């Protein structure tokens, strides 16, 4: 039973915050090297976003409790950094756990097709048929509204090579929006699709892969068209949409802890509403 004094938990845990490829090592210990996986708790409802390498530790923690796992994954898309942890997600291997995985079609494939390729000889010794959990694969079309108990999840198609799904979780009068792997318009204008999805959110995590110099080719090749946003673009869209708290997410793999601190010092002075998200961080919506 809940009351106004004790609202139901709406809490995130970021098991992986890195983009593109895991980046472990001494220069990334503070922000973390695992790729994207987020645990989204809405009261008793347990949802998760993506199965990057952060899913290994997430699955180990779920398995350690000994309780049956009942969990729904929502896939943003099927690029390797968002599925790479699934072969090591322990609950898949154990009977008694129920997992549902929603994905849109990307290049005519769903998450089950990608898992079938990952879980196959000679790349991996365990096949899909050997997974013991009760796993169902479900299709969504961007634009769908999904309902899980008292949780409403709105979805939208965002700009990324091969397509990506942005999510807006609405629960107990609060809103969390997640926009991973999204590229802003290169001309500096606002992208109406993301603005509509994140409008007025209490909390929002947005792709912030590149610096402006990287994006524009001042340092290295131009990253225009590679499907990711700059920190400045994430801030610009978040501010325009009236987001209350912003988490910069999907860090470039070569970005060190010191680099991320320098970005905070350059862009976020006086911005208590913006945080560069770290692996292991728990955030209340
Ligand atoms: Zn990614
Ligand atoms: Zn991607």
Explain what the structure shows.
The protein is α/β, with parallel strands linked by helices and 285 residues long. The chain is built from six helices and 14 strands. The protein has helices at 54-64, 111-118, 192-198, 212-215, 231-240, 257-267; strands at residues 10-16, 37-42, 45-49, 70-74, 98-103, 134-139, 145-148, 151-158, 164-171, 174-179, 203-207, 246-249, 274-276, 282-284. The chain has a seven-stranded mixed sheet with strand order 6-5-4-3-2-1-14. β8 (151-158) and β9 (164-171) form a beta hairpin. The two termini are 19 Å apart. The structure holds zinc ion (2 copies).
Short structural summary:
This protein has a single domain (10-277), classed as Metallo-beta-lactamase, Chain A (4-Layer Sandwich), CATH 3.60.15. With 285 residues, the protein is of the alpha/beta class.
């Amino acid at each position: 039973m809940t009351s106004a004094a004790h609202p139901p938990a709406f809490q995130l845990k970021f098991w992986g915050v890195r983009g593109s490829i895991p980046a472990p090592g001494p220069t990334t210990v503070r922000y973390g090297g695992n790729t994207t996986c987020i645990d989204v708790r809405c009261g008793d409802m347990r949802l998760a976003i993506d199965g990057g390498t952060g899913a290994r530790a997430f699955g180990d923690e779920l398995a350690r409790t000994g309780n049956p796992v009942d969990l729904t994954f929502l896939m943003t898309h099927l690029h390797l950094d968002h599925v790479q942890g699934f072969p090591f997600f322990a609950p898949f291997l154990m009977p008694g756990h129920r997992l549902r995985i929603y994905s849109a079609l990307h290049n005519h494939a769903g998450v089950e097709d990608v898992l079938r390729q990952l879980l196959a000889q000679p790349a991996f010794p365990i096949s899909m048929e050997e997974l013991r959990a009760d796993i169902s694969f479900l299709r969504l079309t961007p634009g769908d509204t999904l309902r899980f108990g008292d949780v409403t999840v709105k979805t939208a198609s965002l700009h990324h090579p091969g397509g990506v799904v942005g999510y807006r979780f609405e629960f107990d009068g609060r809103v969390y929006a997640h926009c991973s792997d999204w590229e802003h318009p290169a001309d500096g204008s606002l992208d109406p699709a993301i603005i509509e999805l994140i409008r007025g959110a209490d909390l929002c995590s947005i792709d912030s892969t590149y610096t402006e110099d990287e994006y524009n080719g001042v340092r290295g090749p131009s990253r225009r068209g590679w499907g990711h946003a700059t920190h400045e673009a994430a801030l610009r869209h978040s501010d325009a949409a009236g987001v209350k708290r912003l988490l910069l997410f999907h860090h470039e793999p070569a970005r060190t802890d010191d680099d991320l601190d320098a970005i905070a010092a350059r862009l976020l002075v006086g911005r208590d509403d913006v945080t560069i998200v770290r692996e292991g961080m728990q955030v209340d919506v």
